[in-house]
Every structure is written in C-alpha cells, then in structure tokens.
TrEMBL record:
Entry-linked InterPro entries: Aminotrans_3, Aminotrans_3_PPA_site, PyrdxlP-dep_Trfase, PyrdxlP-dep_Trfase_major, PyrdxlP-dep_Trfase_small
Pfam families per the UniProt record, alphabetical: Aminotran_3 (PF00202)
CDD domains assigned to the protein according to its UniProt record, in alphabetical order: OAT_like (cd00610)
UniProt key word DNA damage: no
Keywords: Pyridoxal phosphate
Family designation: Belongs to the class-III pyridoxal-phosphate-dependent aminotransferase family.
Record flagged with keyword Transcription: no
Protein name: Uncharacterized protein
Length: 477
C-alpha cells in the first residue's frame, strides 16, 4: 500500500478505495491548502492559455467591493480570478487549469470559447453589432427558424429576450393576457427569476424580497427525495387541483414549472407529475409553461428539452443560458394563436433578437448537432451518475444523487434518516475540490447540494477525475 505524508505530518493518507489512475507525490494539492490532501491527476489537455498581465484577484476584489453592489456574492473562501477558458476547462491568473463542472450555472453548453461560436460572433460583430428589429436582418430569422424546428407541435413563434428572467416575465404576461385570468400556479422550491412576476412565482424565501407579489399559488413540490409522496407524481398533482378549487376562482392563467429544478438543487420532478398537472390546469382554462432555462438544449441527454422526459407538450416554452453558450440571450416560444395577444398593444424589446446574439445562438444549435452533444450528455452523464452512486455507497454524508444527463445533483446530509442538511460541510468540500482542480456549483434551499452542470463536451475521463476528487475531499470530512 502506497502512503503519502502531508505537510507537517498532520495526517497520513492512503490510496485504498480511490482510483487506480491517479496518485503520485507530485499530485498533492497546492501548498496554499492548510490540509494538503492526495489529489487525482487531471486529464491531459493539449492547450496552454496566453500569458495574463492583468490585475490580481485582490485588486479586482477591492474594486468590486468599492464599485459593485454589495449584494454580489462569490464562491470559496478565497475567490478565484478566472481569466481564460477553453472547452470544459478554465484557467486562473496564474495559469492553473480547473475542470469546469458548473458551466457558468448550466450556461456553457458547447464549451468555453468554442471556435465555431466565437467565429460566428466575431463575423457578425464585424458586419453589424446592432440595428433593431425595426429593420430586416437575416440573423434573427435564421435562428428563429432553426429553434422552432427543435420544438414539438405548433410551438413555432419565437420572441427573443436577454435572459431567462425576461423570458419568464414575458411568458407569464402572455398567459394572463391570453386567458384573461391573473392566477398563476408554480411549485415550492422553484426559481424562475428576480423581476416582479418571476419573483412571485419563485418558491424560495431566500430569493424573494418584501415587495408586492400577487396572484401566485405554490403547489407542493413533487420531490422524490424529500417529498411527502416519494416518487408518486399523480399524488403530488392532486395539490394543483386543490389549489385551483380552494385558492382561485376556478380559472387560472397558467402553470409554470421546470422539469428539473436547477437552483432548487437539481430536483427532478416525480414521474407522471407533469401529465397530471397539465391536464388539471388545462381543464381550468390555464396554459402550461415549461421553464427550460437550465434543462434545455440537450443537457438532459435523453431529450433535447427537459419537459420531453415527462411526455408533455407545453403551450409556452422559455429558455436562456445554454441557448447562447454564455452570450446574453433568452427566448419564449409559443403557438401562433397565443402569440397574437402581443399585437393588441405594442410590445418591444430593444436588444431582443440582437444580430450578434442570434448569430451565436444559431452557431450553438449547429455545434450541438454536429458534435452530437446530446448523445454525449446522455452517455457521459449516465456514466458520471453511476460513478457518483458509488460515492454515495461509500460516504454516509451523501444523501442523494439525482438528475439526468449533465444536469446532476449530489445532496449532502449529516444524518441520512433525518436528511439533516450538511451546509457547513458542503462549503468545506467545495473548497477542497477547488484546491484539487474541480469547480462545482452549489444550490438547493438548504445550500447543501452540489450542482454538476458542465459543458456538454465533458468526457468520461473528466467524469472520472471529478468523482475521484470528490471522493478525496469527502474522505477528509
């Protein structure tokens, strides 16, 4: 058995139960980590970033504290100064490479600085950065046509926005106008944005301010891990019917939900929930809105859209994040009939449909198809989930592994029976993983879920490295 002694002989680690691939004395964690631990070897990547000559992280942090909103927060005890990205990897100001398993919050779909997307952006920027939709430009129509081709049924009219919040705001307004009703049903634990209507539909107090929020009813969350009915989706859906009968006039404007809650901690809705909920809402005259801001664009692997995993067809679909691989872009797609409601008065968005953004969006769709990233998300995501399940078997602190494709969550608890959130431990492990070269996200109302949403070019070697690093970090708890 090979052993390594850390700095100051604080502890002795051995490689039993870890990976056969990785360990040597040269692979110890960076020396700025007080508790140096054995670190797996990162997969080879034949790329070196250009030299960085900009300000230090401390200088940036100082300016950020002085000139930016105090509401802005950051990960890690010592925040990272990331200056370069290439595909599934990020580089800090010292040139150190990190495996990006967060993807800018499920936003980087094709990979950081994907050459095809960069080329589309640069070429369009050289020709025309902005005009307005008051003039004709083929970039917006080409992308709208391509995007509509990826959606089922009569979902073929596209409105472009700048973010997921804007997309959800527009969808809610359209539903209220179309139905003549005000009441919206969304889910507890949901997150749909931070503007007026979207904050109302968000179902977590940590994302809501004390401002007027009206006309929204939050149904019981169909959470297979923490929910009262386990994985019985139809039982949860009965609460939607009860809300309509006892909390509204009996008629509603819409039901809004994700198929897999992202900010909520990668909670995949219980099987059979959306078909039952959609049926109930439509009987009450409401529209069904699918929030695909995080689950869309092939991320779930098995399907292009998250709602398809539950076998439903919404009336309105909202999207953002992965749509532009990091470019500020969102969209609402609906039917021609519903789209007509915005013609009754003027509706306009200055930057919605910007030619640079829509050129980027079309390039993203082409890359997803050309490089078969949906298939990759399914194959690599399934493999990664299986490997994460072995982590759960090994470490009691791992209460649940969930999600699909490359939209995965790992929930940490201090007591599996009571499901007590391991908040402090989650932060500690995240820092350990960062020190070993892996960046993951954090989410869930209780702040105890690792969000694993990497670029869709993630490989099995990357998955192995991520799991081995997590295993090492968990072994220190």
């Amino acid at each position: 058995m090979q052993r390594f002694v850390t700095k100051g002989a604080k502890w002795v680690g051995d490689v039993r139960g870890l990976s056969h691939r990785c360990y040597s004395q040269s692979s110890l964690a960076s020396k700025n980590d007080d508790d140096m631990i054995i670190s797996p070897r990162m997969p080879h990547f034949d790329y070196s970033p250009p030299p960085y000559n900009g300000p230090t992280g401390d200088e940036i942090l100082s300016k950020r504290r002085e000139f930016l909103s105090p509401s802005m927060f950051y990960f890690y005890e010592k925040p990272l100064n990331l200056v370069h990205g290439k595909m599934q990897y990020l580089f800090d100001n010292n040139g150190r490479r990190y495996l990006d398993a967060f993807g800018g919050i499920a936003t980087v779909s094709c990979g950081h600085c994907h050459p095809d997307v960069v080329e589309a952006i640069v070429n369009q920027t050289k020709r025309l950065q902005h005009s307005t939709i008051l003039y004709l430009n083929h970039a917006i129509t080409d992308f709208a046509e391509a995007l509509a081709s990826k959606l089922p049924g009569d979902l073929k009219v596209v409105f472009f926005t700048n973010s997921g919040t804007e997309a959800n705001e527009l969808a809610i307004m359209m539903a209220r106008l179309y139905t003549g009703c005000h009441d919206i049903i969304s889910l507890r634990n949901a997150y749909h944005g931070n503007a007026a209507a979207t904050m109302s539909t968000t179902g977590q107090s940590i994302w809501k301010f004390n401002v007027v929020q009206s006309g929204v009813h939050h149904a019981i969350n169909p959470d297979p891990y923490r929910g009262v009915f386990g994985s019985d989706g139809e039982k949860y859906a009965k609460d939607v019917e009860d809300l309509i009968q006892f909390g509204t006039s009996g008629r509603v404007a819409a039901f809004l939900s994700e198929a897999i809650q992202g900010v909520g901690g990668i909670v995949e809705l219980a099987p059979g929930y959306l078909p039952a909920a959609y049926s109930t809402v439509r009987k009450a005259g409401g529209l069904c809105i699918a929030d695909e801001v995080q689950a869309g664009f092939a991320r779930t692997g098995s399907h292009f859209w998250g709602f398809e995993n539950q076998g439903v067809v919404p009336d309105i679909v909202t999207m953002a994040k992965g749509i532009g691989n990091g470019i500020p872009l969102g969209a609402v797609v609906t039917t021609p009939e519903i789209a007509q409601v915005l013609t009754h008065h003027n509706y306009f968005n200055t930057f919605g449909g910007n030619p640079v953004c829509t050129a980027a969006g079309l390039a993203v769709l082409k890359v997803i198809e050309k490089e078969k990233l949906q298939e990759n998300a399914h194959v690599v995501g399934s493999y990664l989930k299986e490997r994460l399940m072995t982590i759960k078997d090994k470490h009691e602190i791992v209460g649940d592994v969930r999600g699909r494709g490359l939209l995965l969550g790992v929930e940490l608890v201090t007591d599996r029976k009571l499901k007590t959130p391991a908040r402090v431990e989650t932060l500690h492990i995240m820092d350990k993983m960062k020190n070993m070269g892996v960046l993951v996200g954090k989410g869930g109302f209780r702040g105890n879920v690792f969000r694993i949403t990497p670029p869709l070019c993630f490989t099995k070697e990357d998955a192995d490295f991520l799991v081995d690093v997590m295993d090492c970090a968990l072994s220190k708890i």
